[in-house]
Each structure stands twice: as C-alpha cells, then as structure tokens.
Design goal:
TIM Barrel, 11% strand
Length: 374
C-alpha cells in the first residue's frame, strides 16, 4: 500500500496528519446526512475522512479489485448553442472551426479503439440543433452493424433534450428510438452542479436541474443505465455540492439506474469562467469531495477517481479515498484538454498505479462488468 501522508499537494499542512478528530467514526452501516456532509466539507481532517470512505469502499467492493476501461471519447460535433462559460471546446453555429464528423471518421476512430483492446466509446458533443433524431438513428445503427460488440455510451442530457425538441418528440420516445438504433447507455455529462442558482451563473442557456433529472429518470425507466457526474470548483458553495449529491441519491433510490458517480474539478484555462474563478481545486479538495461522495452516495455502487484532471498520483490516492475505478485509458479526449488538462496514461500506467495502491487491476466494460481475465 502506498504512503499517502505527504503526496497530496495544496494547502493542507499538518492537518493531513490528524485522524478522525472531526468525524464520529465509520458510517458504513448508516446513511450520511446532509449535516454530516456539510461538516465533512468544512472539516480539515482529510486523512480521517479518507479512512472512513476507504472502509466503506471495502464493504461495497471486498475483493480488492480496482477497475479501468479502454475506450475513447469521440466528440462528433463541436457546434453548440449553449455558450457555457466553463467550456473551451464549443464553437458557435456556423463558426469556421465548427465541425460535424463524417461517419467514416467516427468508424475509423472506433476501429482503432477495438484494435487497442477497447470495448466501448463515449460519444457526445455540442448541443447542435441541426442534428435531429434521424441523424443519430442512422449513425448508431450503422455503427452497431459494423461494430456489434462495441458499447455505445452516448449523448448528454442537454443533447437528448435538443434532439427531442428539434424532432418534435417526447423525451421517452427520443430515448427509446435511440436505444432501438443501438445506443446502449448514457453518460452523466451536463450535470455540472445540479442547482439552478449555479447553473444560471455558469451556463444560463443549459437545461435546468429538473430537466437533467427527467432525462436520466426516463432513461432508467426504459431500462437504460446512465452515469452521474459532478463538476465542482466552479464557484459553488458547500450547500450547492450537498444539494447536488442529495439530488443524485434521491433519484438513485427511485430508479437504481446509475452505474457510477464521477466527480472532477473545473478546469479554468481558456474559459470565460476561468477569469472569474481562476484558482483550480486542489488535490486535497478533490480527495475530500471524492471521499464525501463515496459516503453520501451509498446507493451508487461505483465511484471513479480521475487522472485526466488530477494526474496519476492523485488518482492513485483516490483509491484510498473511496474510489474503486480509475476510469479510462482514454485513447482520445478533447473537452477538458482544451480547458487545460494535459495528463496522459497507458493501460500499463493504470495497471501499475492500481497494483502499487494495493489493488488487483481489472479491465471492465461500460457497465462496470469486470469479467476480463487479466
């Protein structure tokens, strides 16, 4: 097991050496309350919090396995009407740098992924009103015909809402038609912070909290799994973060459709919001948020620790702060890289990182099934 006493950076100081001074002990058998979450966010006892989250992670995942996936992010279009202040990826409709990838380019990217041992793709892009349901039905059905074994983890809630609107369909009909054409599951993108006060400030044109919930609830109701996410460090308060986690926990209690939760910090470079919130969340904040998420979202089985924004060392620490998955080798990623993330990793990097943290590395698929013999 790695030594975590002096690796995390940020302004943690000697508080990293305290143990369980502010928390009341493991809550593995009870549900973390809102007040306990608020207390944990205000606590300076990072190690005690991490120990608590690690103990709960071990109860949920007792076999000492930490998983990863080989896939790639394919952004089929960067044209978008939402103008989110935290995004450096989008281009306005009609912009000279705007694009919609042709089918052949997408197919070539998937073939390369398969050749590298990949099992799925995460495909999402800008909210582009020129792309209606017919476009996606044709795209997904052709991809499934050519790559029947590849899992298509596609489209954010804001994209689904746009497709439904421009196609004159209900959300349910939109999702059912996409599912019938080959879309297997849906990522949790577009959540940012699920509190409309924050959303109006950082993405005033984007869907409301209730809209995001409705799309995911509907997906779960038709048997489609989704993931849940949180982008923190964008100027929100502790109350906003707790409200976000509570919203996810309530929906999971209702539907059970979330396979995983993935938190990551806002990346400020090249963004309008970065001029107002220039300080990136520290490694300590990431680990704290990861641990609280693991304890609060007791009903979501998997929690992912990120290397894309935090790097391999902090990601490795996250495996002892409640995380049981390190995400993807990620053969391609464009959105957070344009906002300043610059880390990279090979499959062996991830496997070595997992082993050195004291876990058994296992490749998984999009639905977190770790049946691969490696």
């Amino acid at each position: 097991m790695m030594d975590i006493s002096g690796t995390a950076h940020g302004q943690c100081g000697s508080n990293l050496l305290r143990h369980c001074s502010a928390l009341s002990g493991p809550r593995a058998e009870t549900m973390m309350t809102k007040d306990q979450a608020r207390e944990s966010f205000r606590s300076d006892d990072l190690i005690g919090l991490g120990m608590e989250a690690d103990a709960f992670r071990e109860k949920l995942h007792p076999h000492g396995i930490a998983s990863y996936i080989i896939d790639r992010n394919i952004n089929h279009t960067n044209e978008c009407t939402e103008y989110c202040s935290f995004c450096a990826f989008y281009r306005p409709m009609g912009h000279s740098e705007g694009y919609v990838l042709p089918f052949e380019t997408i197919a070539d990217k998937i073939q390369e992924t398969v050749d590298c041992g990949g099992t799925g793709v995460l495909m999402q892009g800008g909210v582009n009103p020129n792309l209606a349901i017919d476009y996606f039905e044709d795209l997904f059905s052709r991809l499934k015909q050519q790559f029947p074994e590849v899992q298509l983890h596609c489209l954010s809630a804001p994209e689904i809402l746009c497709i439904a609107e421009v196609s004159g369909l209900t959300i349910k009909d939109t999702l059912m038609r996409l599912q019938d054409s080959g879309m297997d599951s849906m990522p949790g993108a577009g959540a940012e912070i699920l509190d409309d006060e924050v959303r109006r400030r950082i993405a005033r044109l984007k869907c409301t909290t209730e809209d995001w919930i409705t799309v995911h609830r509907t997906a779960h109701q038709i048997g489609m799994n989704t993931t849940a996410t949180m982008m923190f460090g964008c100027g929100e308060t502790i109350e906003h973060r707790v409200a976000h986690l509570e919203t996810l926990r309530q929906l999971q209690d209702e539907t059970g459709g979330f396979t995983a939760f993935i938190p990551w910090p806002f990346q400020p470079d090249n963004t309008a919001l970065g001029k107002k919130v220039p300080e990136e969340a520290t490694a300590c904040e990431f680990l704290q948020t990861l641990a609280i998420s693991r304890l609060y979202l007791h009903n979501i089985l998997n929690v992912q620790t990120s290397w894309v924004t935090q790097g391999l060392k902090v990601c490795q620490l996250g495996l002892r702060f409640g995380g049981n998955d390190v995400g993807s080798v990620m053969l391609e990623e464009n959105v957070v890289r344009q906002a300043g993330a610059s880390h990279s990793a090979t499959e062996e990097d991830l496997r070595r990182m997992i082993r050195e943290a004291g876990f058994i590395p296992k490749q998984r698929d999009t639905l977190y099934r770790t049946y691969f013999l490696n």
